[in-house]
């Protein structure tokens, strides 16, 4: 696959990830779980494409950010897979025991990696003026409350996810627009 094709595919994956994240909160629980899992998997692909798209304008901090965000996203994907396909077949006491122990710590560690990675990556992209700054701010600001997701009311997290997803979709569309106009090629 050519680099340009990968970046275009990744930008579409990133946009679809954002759309799924928005609609997942308004679906029945089973659909929400599946949509969140698929959205995170597509988000991982989108992060890689975003890095390839921007790496010539950014430095080592962008690489560190995308790696942190990717490792965090992969950990979150593992949890979402478990939440969608394993937890429903377990009794609630077992699920509570698992999430209260080391599994819960692993999930929180993945969230920390993801949020720190997004903040670092978005900051380097912002500084490099590689993408629309308002889109990067939406992505970063909307991602930040994820650190306190357990303590925040569901509607606050829904609003934060919509804000982050709007930024993600805007970023993806900006990349596709640049590619279509011929202003970006690898």
**Class by SSE composition:** mainly alpha
Number of strands: 0
- The overall number of domains is 1
Largest sheet geometry: none
Rg, Cα atoms, Å: 17 Å
Q: Percent of residues in helical segments? A: over 70%
Q: Given the C-alpha coordinates, what overall shape results? A: elongated
Low-confidence stretches: none
Q: Treating each run of at least 4 consecutive H or I residues as one helix, how many helices?
A: 7
- The separation of the N and C termini measures 13 Å
Strand content: under 5%
**Helix/strand order:** HHHHHHH
Mean pLDDT: 93
Secondary structure elements and pairings:
Layout: H1 3-24, H2 29-54, H3 60-85, H4 92-100, H5 102-128, H6 133-143, H7 154-181
Helix pairs in contact: 1-2, 1-7, 2-3, 3-5, 5-6, 6-7
Walk me through the structure.
The chain has one domain (3-181). The longest helix has 28 residues, at 154-181. The radius of gyration is 17 Å and the shape is elongated. Helix 1 packs antiparallel against helix 7 (154-181), helix 3 (60-85) runs antiparallel to helix 5 and helix 5 packs antiparallel against helix 6. Helices cover 80% and strands 0% of the residues. It has 186 residues and is mainly alpha-helical.
């Amino acid at each position: 696959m050519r680099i340009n094709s990968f970046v275009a595919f990744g930008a579409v994956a990133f946009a679809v990830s954002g759309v799924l994240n928005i609609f997942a909160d308004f679906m029945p629980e089973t659909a929400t779980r599946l949509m969140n899992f698929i959205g995170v998997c597509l988000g991982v692909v989108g992060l890689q494409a975003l890095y390839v798209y921007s790496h010539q304008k950014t430095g080592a901090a962008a690489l560190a950010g995308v790696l942190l965000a990717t490792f965090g996203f992969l950990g979150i994907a593992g949890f979402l897979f478990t939440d969608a396909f394993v937890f429903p077949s377990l009794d609630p006491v077992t699920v509570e025991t698992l999430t209260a122990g080391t599994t819960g710590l692993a999930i929180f560690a993945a969230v920390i990696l993801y949020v720190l990675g997004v903040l670092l990556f978005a900051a380097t992209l912002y500084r490099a003026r590689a993408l629309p700054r308002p889109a990067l701010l939406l992505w970063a600001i909307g991602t930040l409350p994820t650190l306190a997701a357990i303590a925040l009311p569901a509607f606050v997290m829904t609003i934060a996810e919509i804000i982050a997803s709007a930024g993600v979709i805007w970023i993806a569309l900006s990349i596709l627009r640049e590619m279509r106009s011929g202003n970006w090629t690898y």
